[in-house]
Design goal:
It is elongated and about 70 Å long. A hairpin with a 2-residue loop joins strand 2 and strand 3. The chain is an alpha+beta fold. It has a four-stranded antiparallel sheet. The chain starts with a strand and ends with a helix.
Length: about 120
């Protein structure tokens, strides 16, 4: 799953203030963007965090640029007491491969062989 996270620190703000002035506004700005699959947000004391899940096979960098533009175009954003938005790409890897290697060779030789197998796979 590939995604983008927008975080905005808002010192002294209640969760309700964060929701109204940060998370809801960013959600509305990014929901209709091409490549956006789902938007979730969390409003907590002093911090708003919006997670944007991307559709499969999209140009994640282009969507990130679109998100940055959409957030930059929000009027009076962020609120005066809040910090500037932090927009980062999040890449969650869910595919894992496990290989078991066994041999009658000494452990050192087995380790070298396993490492030689591992390197091209990474």
């Amino acid at each position: 799953v590939l995604g983008i996270t927008v975080s905005v620190a808002y010192p002294g703000a209640t969760p309700t203030e964060v929701e109204e002035s940060i998370t809801r506004r960013v959600e509305e700005a990014v929901l209709g963007l091409d490549g956006v699959k789902r938007v979730r947000s969390r409003a907590a004391e002093n911090l708003g965090s919006i997670t944007i899940e991307l559709k499969d096979y999209v140009d994640a960098s282009a969507v990130r640029d679109d998100v940055e533009s959409a957030v930059a175009q929000l009027a009076d954003f962020p609120p005066e007491q809040a910090e500037q938005p932090d927009i980062v790409m999040a890449d969650t890897v869910s595919d894992v491969l496990t290989i078991v290697v066994s041999s009658d060779l000494p452990e050192r030789s087995l380790r070298r062989g396993a490492e030689a197998l591992e390197e091209p796979l990474l």
